[in-house]
Design a protein that fits this description.
eight-stranded mixed beta sheet, Immunoglobulin-like, about 325 residues, alpha+beta
Length: about 325
């Protein structure tokens, strides 16, 4: 015994799917049908259906054909005038369908479809070698910016036995608001998070900050951007546009720097020289880890990897709408 109402539900779903398909087909081919319909009638008048006669009851008057409907004798258009009127009816529904597709596309866009493409990358030197005890900079540069960005979180991991972070500088950064700067040399982690208000940053590339490392012991050490790093677009949805994560390998030589060089480095690392608080527009506020935007980005990345029907269907709908609107856009632009 079937579930009560299941048949009605299935019929409703089937009707909605069929209606959606017809609307989108009319949005593409409806205008061509308007022209093809009366031409088809000229060659095959008895095999052409009058839509008004089809939906009305027996004996009612059809204003297109100017006759009483007699379905037993056929519901084809009586004259060319009737065929043209039927073509006009197709045109009305076609224009409605195009409007529906356009509205559907706008709604999907507001819901975040299509998602902003991931095009941004962190750029750092791929290799480098320095002496033991030497402090050296690693600039965090961002490239591949196609949409303006306004929030950046750069998380860096390294081997704390070989390297330590002495300072993170925001001098020459395109950002002017910094919400977190964290250095943890016990576990080998550093974070710089911040950004800038609307309209965001839209240059081809820009420096976000500079990490100053110090070699603690000889050896080869790899510095990686963690998966919790992100670059958010200023698109009203906070889309993460970070495409890939950079890494660099440093060789720390056993030769140690001199005492004079150590003193010079300490002078360079002073905040006034690095420019941490230079410029009236620069603001720096530090929050706890759990308050930083995107602190749970790893969990979000794992969710994105899973099959999500609620995400796939809107993306397919948006692609179909975009293809239809692009088709008509190309026609009217010629």
């Amino acid at each position: 015994m079937g579930l009560p109402g299941l048949g009605l539900i299935l019929k409703t779903i089937s009707f909605l799917l069929a209606s959606w398909l017809v609307v989108h087909l009319l949005a593409v081919f409806g205008v061509f049908l308007v022209i093809a319909y009366p031409i088809w009638w000229l060659f095959f008048p008895k095999k052409t259906i009058c839509f008004y006669c089809r939906i009305k009851n027996e004996g009612e008057f059809c204003p297109f054909c100017r006759r009483r409907i007699d379905k037993a004798n056929g519901i084809f258009p009586e004259t060319l005038r009737s065929a043209v009127f039927n073509g006009g009816l197709i045109l009305i529904f076609s224009l409605f369908s195009i409007g529906f597709v356009f509205t559907e596309s706008r709604v999907l866009n507001l819901l975040g479809f299509p998602p902003t493409p991931k095009t941004v990358s962190f750029v750092i030197p791929t290799t480098g070698q320095y002496r033991l005890g030497q402090v050296f900079p690693m600039k965090i540069e961002i490239t591949g910016i196609k949409k303006p960005i306004n929030i950046i979180q750069a998380d860096i991991s390294f081997d704390p036995k070989i390297l330590e972070v002495r300072e993170i500088s925001t001098n020459d950064s395109f950002a002017n608001i910094f919400v977190q700067k964290e250095i943890n040399n016990q576990v080998g982690f550093a974070r710089l998070a911040g950004g800038l208000p609307n309209p965001g940053f839209s240059g081809e590339r820009g420096i976000f900050g500079t990490v100053y490392f110090k070699g603690k012991s000889p050896g080869v050490v790899k510095v990686d951007f963690s998966s919790s790093s992100k670059v958010l677009a200023n698109d009203g949805r906070g889309s993460n546009t970070l495409k890939d994560l950079a890494s660099v390998s440093y060789l720390i030589l056993p030769e140690e720097i001199s005492e004079t060089e150590k003193e010079e480095q300490e002078t360079i690392l002073q905040p006034g020289v690095l420019g941490e608080f230079s410029g009236e527009e620069t603001q720096m506020e530090f929050y706890e880890e759990e308050k930083i935007l995107g602190a749970q980005i790893d969990q979000e990345i794992e969710k994105e990897k899973k099959f999500n029907l609620g995400k796939i269907l809107p993306e397919l709908l948006e692609r179909a709408d975009r293809a239809i609107l692009f088709f008509w856009g190309k026609i009217f632009s010629k």
